[in-house]
Automatic annotation (TrEMBL):
Keyword Zinc-finger belongs to the record: no
Gene3D superfamilies for this protein: Vaccinia Virus protein VP39
Origin superkingdom: Eukaryota
Designated name of the protein: Endothelin-converting enzyme 2
GO biological process assignments: methylation
Residue span, Methyltransferase type domain: 52-160
PANTHER family in UniProt: METHYLTRANSFERASE TYPE 11 DOMAIN-CONTAINING PROTEIN, SAM-DEPENDENT METHYLTRANSFERASE SUPERFAMILY PROTEIN
GO MF entry, a single one: S-adenosylmethionine-dependent methyltransferase activity
Length: 244
């Protein structure tokens, strides 16, 4: 019997996401919910500074950030107007003045966020958005464009926090291959029932070119604990990429 092939390419298509977001429950979370990511998020995304969330989908992470940890400004973007309209309607209808004031939404492509000024965000959250981009025919180039845009928008010393199922062997070449000289990249592994390992620091100096923008020598960067990840079953990775 011939089984239907998994069409991962569709994850890079806006029409797929529009159709999916029409029927998805608000609060549907890819990979992990706020409770399991909270220690890493609150460590790398400062509560008093504007935070940008890429590819929000129908996630409720931004709501949790405001209600549970008093984040003051979380701006979430997605290129699916369907997702953004639904989230904005929920914000307007919310009985919480705190949510109404702290949340904002925008239909925008994470590869080109030109409306926003350089260095205007104190942190960036990406849960599954770069993963979706990477599924397309031009995945590597699209991911590099998105990473350069994230870099442009980050304030000095701020972090781009990427949540993904991709192992360091698969993801570090993408992170370091975009021509962006990260000061440091830290890796966490988030497992079941609150299990958390890390942070483990990537040896960026081992990448060809001697810095975070070089790409190239993956084996060099996988030294120590980073090279052993993932060590847990059904886990996800968090990459905290810090701008100098
Ligand atoms: C795997 S889902 C993750 C959704 C949400 N972050 C979560 O964790 O539940 C990927 C999201 O990225 C969005 N997306 C994909 N490519 C995008 C792009 N180029 N610009 C903005 N959003 C994009 C999709 O519309 C989708 O909502």
């Amino acid at each position: 019997m011939e089984l239907p092939q998994l069409q991962v390419k569709q994850f890079s298509e806006q029409s797929y996401w529009d159709a999916r977001h029409k029927g998805e429950a608000l609060g549907y979370e890819w990979y992990r919910d706020y409770a399991s990511l909270r220690p890493v998020l609150t460590r790398h995304l400062p509560r008093q500074e504007p935070i940008l969330q890429l590819g929000v989908g129908t996630s409720a992470i931004q709501t949790d950030m405001v209600l549970r940890d008093s984040y003051t400004a979380v701006h979430s973007v997605d290129y699916s107007p369907v997702a953004i309209e639904r989230l904005e309607a929920a914000r307007v209808e919310s009985a919480s003045a705190q949510l109404q004031g702290a949340l904002s939404y925008e239909v925008a492509d994470m590869r080109a966020l030109g409306r926003h000024e350089d260095g205007c965000f104190g942190g960036i959250l990406d849960k599954g958005a770069l993963d979706a981009l990477l599924c397309g025919d031009n995945g590597e180039a699209d991911a590099a464009a998105a990473l350069r845009e994230a870099w442009r928008l980050l304030a000095p010393g701020a972090a781009y926090l990427m949540i993904t199922s991709a192992s360091p062997r698969a993801r570090l070449p993408v992170i370091t291959g975009a021509g962006v000289p990260w000061a440091s990249v830290l890796v966490y592994e988030v497992g079941q029932r609150g299990a958390l390992a890390g942070p483990f620091e990537v040896r960026l100096g081992a990448a060809s070119g001697g810095g975070g923008g070089g790409g190239g020598d993956v084996d060099g960067m996988l030294g120590g604990a980073v090279g052993r990840l993932p060590e847990m079953g059904y886990s996800h990775m968090c990459y905290a990429c810090v701008k100098p």
